[in-house]
Amino acid sequence: MSPKHRDLKAPEHIAVIMDGNGRWARARGLPRAFGHREGAKTLHEVVAAAAGLGIGWLTVYTFSTENWRRPAREVKGLMKLIAERAHAEQAGLLESNARVRVIGRLGDVPPVSRRKLDDLVTTTAACTGLNFTLAISYGGRAEIIDACRRAVESGHPPSDENEFRQLLYDPTIPDPDLLIRTGGDQRISNYLLWQSAYTELYFTETLWPDFHRAELEAAIAEYGRRQRRFGRV
Ligand code: IPE
Ligand code: IPE
Ligand code: MG
Predict the structure, then answer these.
(1) In a domain, 230, yes or no
(2) Each residue of 50-69: pLDDT tens digit?
(3) What are the DSSP calls for the chain, one per residue?
(4) 208 within ligand 2 shell (Cβ under 6 A)
(5) 2 annotated as belonging to a binding site for a ligand
(6) What predicted TM-score, i.e. pTM, was given to this entire model?
(7) Is 158 within the bounds of a domain?
(8) Looking at residue 122, which CATH number applies to its domain?
(9) Which ligand is nearest to the CA of 137?
């Protein structure tokens, strides 16, 4: 990334759809679970890279509301992996001053994984470096429905976009500037539907376990070349 790009147009918030773990494993004749484990290593690397590049916010799609429809064994393995990594990464994240948030329908997450995630959020709550958010049991439509429910319960229907935003899972998270999807598919898959109204989209064929620092830098450089207009001329 040239200094020019960094100075002029670095994305403040990067959202990532970490896709392709299953295909990465299949290409090696391994069970899908191996791909998920490798994907967790990649995430560790990308978090460190994002923090090093001075990215303010990183939000990663870890498990969607639709992913509950996968075979029970895969779902169980993913929840176990989330619990394990949340615990194992805690000290390092704290050390690097990263603040972790979790968004999604966490009531559906098994208690063990939920506890580890809660722990991670609480432990890093005072950190002031990278704002690192995990979207777990997350769906953009679910988030909008949940916001509507909260509005009805409160008896105060939102009168504009700003008021509606306050009803989202975490209104302090800014809209993503750049959304990266790995794995070759060019779709949103129910991620951050409200927030990505004017987000720049970046798709790469690279499978998530193969997405390393250089690819992150390439995506950021590409973002620097985009012209955002927000409807203006
Ligand atoms: C992304 O990889 C991880 C999750 C959705 C949990 P996939 O598991 O979707 O991998 P592919 O897309 O089948 O290769
Ligand atoms: C999107 O990937 C969800 C996550 C990366 C967590 P999927 O693999 O679930 O998306 P589709 O089914 O290909 O659209
Ligand atoms: Mg997939």
Answers:
(1) no
(2) 999 999 999 999 999 999 99
(3) --HHHHHHH--SEEEEE---HHHHHHTTT--HHHHHHHHHHHHHHHHHHHHHTT-SEEEEEEEEGGGGGS-HHHHHHHHHHHHHHHHHTHHHHHHTTPEEEEES-GGGS-HHHHHHHHHHHHHTTT--S-EEEEEEEE-HHHHHHHHHHHHHHHT----SHHHHHTTSS-TTSPPPSEEEE-SS----TT-STTTTTTPEEEE-SS-GGG--HHHHHHHHHHHHH----TT--
(4) no
(5) no
(6) 0.96
(7) yes
(8) 3.40.1180.10
(9) 2
